[in-house]
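ok so i was messing around last nite and threw this chain in just to see what happens. nothing serious, just curious
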Amino acid sequence: MNKIFIILFLLFVNFISTGNQTFAEDNKIRIGLLLPLSGENAELGKQVLKATRLALNDINSDKIEIYPKDTQSNPNITLRSAIELKQSGINLVVGPIFYENLEYLDEVKDITFLSFTNRTLDLPKNVISAGVNSTSQLKTIKKFIELNQIKKTIFLMPNLNYESEIKQGIKNSKIKTFKKYYYDSEPTKLTKQIEKITNYETRKQNLIDEITRIENSEDPNKERKIENLKKKYTLGKVKFDSVIIADFDESLKSVITSLLYTDVSPKDKYFITFNQWFNESLLIESGSHPIYYPSINKKNLEAFEKKFSKKFNENPNHISLLSYDLIGLIYYLSLKNNGSQINKAFNSKNSFKGKIGIFDIENNKINHQLNFYKIEKGSLKKIF
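result:
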């Protein structure tokens, strides 16, 4: 009986030893993916999955394996899928896409999530934000301000749910602003607020007073001077030389329209905004040019779009490019760390050049070194 027990024990030890040896020789990089593969955001999730496979094809290594799991854009299903990935022995996951789906991921220990969100506050400790965050954008804007020796910058922020993110970005980037203002996105309220910020009523009254003064004067050239003054809308300067508008799409256009209405021109003051993802509708708003903003590398984006379209016969979204880069980043870190504990490599200081630009990694945070662009006369120009 003892001999049988010893034989069985030796067979068990040999099996475990062989299993461990196989695992060591296997040395695979197993990456989980948490994406909405069904439900209302399924098309987005499927495009991200395609971009991931495109990255694997370009890397051309049999060491990387991906394990997609559906989130259905639901925090509870995201948690369930994350637990399944952990049970499969995976400790590094790309995703989820949406901030709302991060809610319960702190319950999944010993696993690192590279989320596509650009929000950096109130994240679970095991989640790293990989999106183009406000800190990255404001550091780039700061560089432009310093290059152009801009002294007085005001900051316009909408009263929306990303206000705290912008405040954190201002703090992290150490950008110097003259004043900060918050505005209501409702057009009528917005215009009134911009009027106050730009001291519009006083400047308008200054013009009226100056015309009246000259009319009552004995100046021999008063008719010509009055004629020139009547071509103006206001008289007097605003107390800033650049304005950063933390807004997007139609709301951004409303703010610019209000500034134009109050006689603040982008030809006299720098109009700077956040990453607009090369929104082509801004190109036709010639009255609001020039506009400046930070963004990813446009040439790289266009090259990726061309490659993706050729492979899948459809145009990719911007998140697809980020997923492509994240797979490349993970592979790069695996080579640098000999394939071991890649999830812990995000604590160390690293830089990685992707299609988006340069990823700066340190203390479980990812920031991006971005380019800076100018829209003027219907065309886009790279500043740096």
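not much to say yet. Residues 134-198+238-295 form a domain with the Rossmann fold fold (CATH 3.40.50.2300).
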